[in-house]
Amino acid sequence: MGNENVGARRICSILMLAIGIVLAVRGLMLDLSGSGSEARGPMLIIGMVLLYFGLYILPTMRYHRAIINIIFLFPLLFAFLVTVIIPLVLGIGYSFTDWDGIRVRNVVGFENYAKIFSQPSFIWSIVITFLFVVVNMIMVNLVAFLLALLCTSKLKGMGFFRASYFLPNLIGGIVLGYIWQFIFSNVVTKMTTALFDSRYSMLSETKTAFIGIIIVYVWQYAGYIMLIYITGLNTVPGDVIEAAAIDGASPMQTLFNIKIPMIAPTITICTFLTLTSAFKQFDVNLALTNGTGSVADFMGSYLTNGTEMLALNIYSTAVIENKYAFGESKAVLFFIILAVVSIIQVRVSNKKEVEL
Asked: Which residues of the chain fall short of a pLDDT of 50?
């Protein structure tokens, strides 16, 4: 009976593999030829499913389990390769050319990179991005940690408050930016008119518009970081807290001498997440100010992109100004800056963990 089962599984597996290969190849051929648009998708999907299950039930394949694991990981690995690795490699190559988004005419070497450092608007974007990152790393983690302390207390209705604080993170950045643009330009202006007889919008000046972006970002992201801090605080053993209370430790002493040192890995994770997220800020910046704002004198130039951070500057260069190769060179430099800063931050945080 055992041999019969193995034989039946082998026959079934071979049939599924054969049919799957035929359907997958046929679907790809229809896709390349541009015909049969309604049938090629289902044929390709059914063919791939049959291939997966045919390999899964094949009884005598050597290293069967390893191959199956690779097969089921393949969609994720393939998506990561296509959307991250290949574009990164191609982008680095295009940054040394005069690529216009369609074709490459000439290889220009480091010409695009040389132009970057002679462009005051891009240098300004780097400066305000670093300022934005530093301020938000402090503010988001501070607000999130205080909210986590509140939500881990024994007050009633903490589940409601956790959900309420996390809710802004579920709103898309573009939608969030337009909502707060309405608040700053209409609600706040009416309040200032009623209180001070002066119609003033935070988005009308570069400095206050930059503060407005910080406010929106902290409001959106603090709830997400709060959940991570709550998880870390819940891992602190209760008997340690009780022992500290018996020994006469005050709540502040318990916080700074027990809780914070014991959640040092959580702080490292939250710091890393806020750093990378703040560096990549794009959607709120686009919707709230679109990077506009005047800077009277920076490197001898008058700038009109006073609130334009790095990601938005790269997008504007490549898509709006249609300078794709130049935008790619900025993106490569951005990647290098983000990678270096992230590595330094993780190393410093790990060193602090050991000290704590």
From this structure: 1
